[in-house]
Design goal:
ESCRT_assembly_dom, protein transport, 64% helix, mainly alpha, 248 residues, rod-shaped
Length: 248
């Protein structure tokens, strides 16, 4: 045994045979499809909802103004036909009435086109507001579902930690450290048994008479106990050399 090794600490486990081993040449290398987890299914469903929302938003884009007629400028001096023959006094009266001015301005061809464009913009804003309310409702549902999944995950995590602690406690007697300590203790115990068997024949009072059968039984017992001791020492030596269970 290497003196640098601790008697209570087993050496690191040996490496397993590589995939080029003769016994593994005929093993097919297949990668079966992994099952879809609930979190992946939820994420895929959420992404599909995002795609549907993006398509609906793209479909409800703001209407383009197009080739709208330009409103008249001051330099053009446009006037409705109904006021062209009015006197200066009548024109001053009209200018003092904003409602009448607004009604007269609607006679220009650009008024109807701009009015329709404004109505389309208002409709677009209403559609966006409706879509925003739908997104708010979906966000609330997603948030509630996420909170539920988070609580479930936390509960499962606590349960798993408890089970893992119980599993570690149950497997502690079969851990490499515990098995190595038991093997070392069994060697010391077997050495004591061998010494006791060897001394038992010499310490017994045979009154000067020793039969051949008694000697044969004692020799057979000594050999049996020595064989057990040699087997345990060999097992410990194989472990120390990294050849546990025949692995090299």
């Amino acid at each position: 045994m290497n003196p640098a090794l601790n008697a209570d600490t087993p050496p690191p486990p040996p490496p397993k045979p590589s995939s080029h081993d003769v016994s593994r040449n005929g093993t097919p290398q297949t990668n079966p499809a992994l099952p879809v987890t609930p979190s992946q299914a939820y994420q895929e469903g959420y992404q599909s909802q995002d795609r549907v929302r993006a398509q609906s938003v793209n479909a409800a884009q703001s209407p383009a103004p197009g080739n709208l007629p330009r409103p008249p400028t001051v330099e053009e001096g446009w006037l409705p036909d109904v006021v062209r023959d009015k006197s200066t006094t009548d024109l001053q009266t009209i200018l003092q009435n904003p409602s009448l001015i607004s009604a007269l301005s609607s006679n220009h061809p650009s008024h109807t086109a701009h009015q329709q464009h404004l109505e389309s913009l208002l409709k677009y804003n209403r559609d966006l507001a409706t879509h925003l309310l739908d997104l708010q409702s979906q966000l609330s549902d997603s948030r509630a579902s996420t909170e539920s999944l988070l609580l479930t995950h936390q509960s499962l995590e606590v349960s798993w930690r408890k089970k893992q602690t119980e599993m570690d406690a149950a497997l502690a007697p079969w851990s490499p450290r515990a098995l190595y300590q038991r093997l070392s203790a069994s060697i010391s115990e077997q050495e004591a048994i061998c010494q006791a068997v060897e001394e038992s024949f010499l310490e017994d009072d045979h009154h000067g008479s020793v039969t051949e059968k008694g000697v044969a039984d004692w020799v057979r017992r000594v050999r049996a106990e020595a064989g057990r001791l040699a087997a345990r020492r060999e097992a410990k030596a194989r472990w120390d050399e990294g050849r546990v269970g025949g692995w090299r």
